[in-house]
Amino acid sequence: MFDVKKFIGETEGFLKENLTGTGVVACSGGIDSSLLAVLCSLSVQEKIVAVFVDTGLVRKSDIENIKKFYSAYSINGRVVDYSEKFFQNLAGVTDPEKKRKIIGKTFIQAFEEAAKEIGATFLLQGTIAPDWIESGGGKRETIKSHHNVGGLPENMTLKVIEPLRDLYKDEVKQISTALGIDISRQPFPGPGLAVRIIGEVTREKAELLKKVTEIVEKEVETFPASLGSPWQYFPVLLPLQTTGVHGDKRSYGLTVCLRIFDSVDGMSGTFTKPDWNFLDQLSTRITNEVPQINRVLYDITNKPPATIEWE
Ligand code: XMP
Fold it and tell me: Which among 57, 232, 308, 311 is the best mutation to test ligand 1's pocket, defined by most ligand atoms within 8 Å of the CB?
């Protein structure tokens, strides 16, 4: 059995001992970095500033939620808009690993800039075990370079602290529950919508995907029990146009693929088998409300062999 109390006590002690200057806590709004921010605020509150980077690739609700979170836990936090830089750096890039590396580097630039402004010398990240195991930190081969592991430059000026490095998702959830942190929200990857836009990432595509994401999240969250409680649910924007009909005219629109997925820890899992009527309703809403999209697919692949995110 994982000893939650012991972990909290040891981590607080570790932070007090090792955070010898001001630290920036990299907050993504996800449960890992939220837990880290709360642990920091409990032990080294005066020494930390939480920073959420608006990459232009986060959902509308992410920015609202992070502000609520800061205020609920009395965390000294800010949101910095760095979206222009992200879209600039991603222009013309289609390779998933290159995208992730660029995002990782741009994140670091954003945090370094924020740290400079704040006068911080430490960067605290909520990296957990699956992040580095899947990035080749263990014995396995690289599957994907997670942004919060793969993008760190060698000449980094900030000292990095990762107190959650040995935890798995279910342990993060146990600790978070013990601390009263809301864990009901689904995981959202650090690189955000970039790993759900196959091909080149642009602001226009990101805006489109944000709209579809909002519809998918609302529908899943309000649909009756037959869906269970999936681990994750999101659309992926494909670099694929197909023929359709809109009114009495031929259309040539974009395609999204829906991923609704059941998992316990994100390491493996199976696709959710929703009611056909639910998928019908979802597809109709998407094509009605986002006219650029004229085709909706459903991903029926488990992990393995597929990963949950498409990139
Ligand atoms: P995959 O796609 O590897 O995802 O099956 C497993 C879980 O991890 C999330 N994920 C990420 N989380 N940074 C993160 O913080 C990342 O780069 C990243 N990539 C995937 C994914 O959403 C799923 O819950």
Answer: 308
